Input
Amino acid sequence: MFEDIGNLMHGFAVVLQPQNLLLMVVGIVLGVIVGVLPGLGGANGVAILLPLTFSMSPTSAIIMLSCIYWGALFGGAITSILFNIPGEPWSVATTFDGYPMAQQGRAGEALTAAFTSSFVGALFAVIMITLVAPLVASFALRFGPAEIFSVYFLAFCSFVGLSKEPPFKTIAAMMLGFALGAVGLDQMTGQLRLTFGFESLLSGFDFLIAVIGLFGIGEILLTMEEGLSFRGKAAKINLKVVIQTWKELPKYWMLSLRSCLIGCWMGISPAGATPASFMSYGIAKRISKRGHNFGKGEIEGVVAPETAAHAAGTAALLPMLALGVPGSPTAAVLLGGLLIWGLQPGPLLFVEQTEFVWGLIASMYMGNIVGLIVVLTCVPLFAAILRIPFSVIAPIILVLCAIGAYTVHNNTFDVVMMLVFGVVGYFMKKANYPLAPMVLAIVLGDKAEESFRQSLLGSQGSLGVFFSNALVSTVMTLGLIALFWPIIQEGISRVRVAMGAARPAQ
Amino acid sequence: MSETVHETGGTGPSHRGVEAGVAVVIGLAGLIAVIGSLRVGIGWADDGPMAGFFPFYIGLIIILSSAINLYTLFAATNDQGLFATWGQLGKVLSVVIPTGIYVGTLPYIGIYVASALLIGTFMMWLGKYRWTTAIPVALLVPVLIFIFFERWFLVPLPKGPLERLLGLYA
Output
């Protein structure tokens, strides 16, 4: 424990180097821009900018990239409140009360509340990561292949149980991801598979290309179809409003705490920030005394989803760091970055790359403080970006996506693949297939398969290995519960209905 | 694909038709995975499961879940309306086609010239901007990209004849 505090202090020393502080500010600003613009989300914003970091040291690189992520989380709130357009899916719930507040001329108040809540949520999650991640990692060091596979199994099953899309669509999308991830060289036997003789498929499908295509190009196509035009409220934010709002916010400490807990929980399980924000908003509406006023410009309706979304977005990094299983697509992209810099994500990271891990954790603290200052002072600037018409922004985003896709492997064929993924993403999104589990499956496919095959190798092909000890059986059982959660839930409600129907007869 | 008229005006492909198409395509991808796995072997070798072992079952699950998705799609009685109107699809195509040309030509003319052309065309054609606005933006963006990527962050991007002419070919 004390050793960890020492390491964290050392991390702060690394982060506070002028060069890293500068990268932090650059990252936050880029991140907010990414969060504000449609078609550039956290995941693909980080993916596009990942190549910029190839020439940096891993610690500086992760500082900048994670700051892009914080910036994107902050940025989503700006568009939701001022323009009623959620820049990110997790800020949809913020529009419910944020935009009405802006319409009533309380934009400054709403923005301050949103940014501050984001900050609180993130801080809560970072503290949790600081305390819990080293423990989880040291525990996970003892994992064998079967335990590792069970963790993957739990992560993917949670998607099926928790996502709002139909379970078989989630499964289809996820398995498609696994299949795409399997193309190319088989890491265990060194054999080529599923390439059908196409040379360009030898190295398989890179998930970064998939992320840029699915989330970037796909999103632009959707925006284009909806014929988006931005008509926003003016953003006025000054010190007086900020201080006034800050005086009011401590009243809602209970709401914040609850939202933080929801966020952390949803962030660690791979459900992610979007359902966390909705859940937190829904519960706040039910519990609050002013719940009937939700949707008409209630500040609590901004605090709840923003706190939860940011807490979830931050907490998603915990399983990525400690177990090597990312909790969100953006965390997956960061994980991809680690692999490119030659770092192996997972429990060993805490032992072998102490400086890197604690630098990252320290940068989470600093990044959110810097982020809060940047967004509070620069809102009008970011809002101005949104006033640039889409017909100007769209081709520029397309160009940036293409650059991002090209620079992953310096390969122009990847740019073509990006467009293909974009069209695929458009159709899948419209047909209600979730894209996050697909991306995660492309990233983790190799590792999940490796642990699966190694476990079977040890057990001579018997699936019993996944239930061979208490730990692995527990995780697998949790996974199965998550997988069949929709059926279990239906069963419970049927029993309830049956009991309710039976009672009057008594 | 059946055509449906929507109350809010405009016709287009039905949601059900497109969704069925998506399910079939995903199912086919599963079939390809199964065939590809069979080629490399799905059984056990001396050193454990063969290369096709894992993707084979993945492929089977894809086919199965796509079949279930198709079934639920047609079992549902409610009309799900339009996927999108033809007008909306036209807008989508008006992005896909220029981008297709863009990704097809950039290996030959370089990313900077291609980007300038894409931005310029997009602004004048879809944004109805006059060339006096479109051309400066179209030229400025690639220059900024050059400074940011190649000069500051040392990331080389594809170049073409123009860059060679200007002596920027590294």
User: Anything to note?
Assistant: The mean pLDDT of chain A is 85.
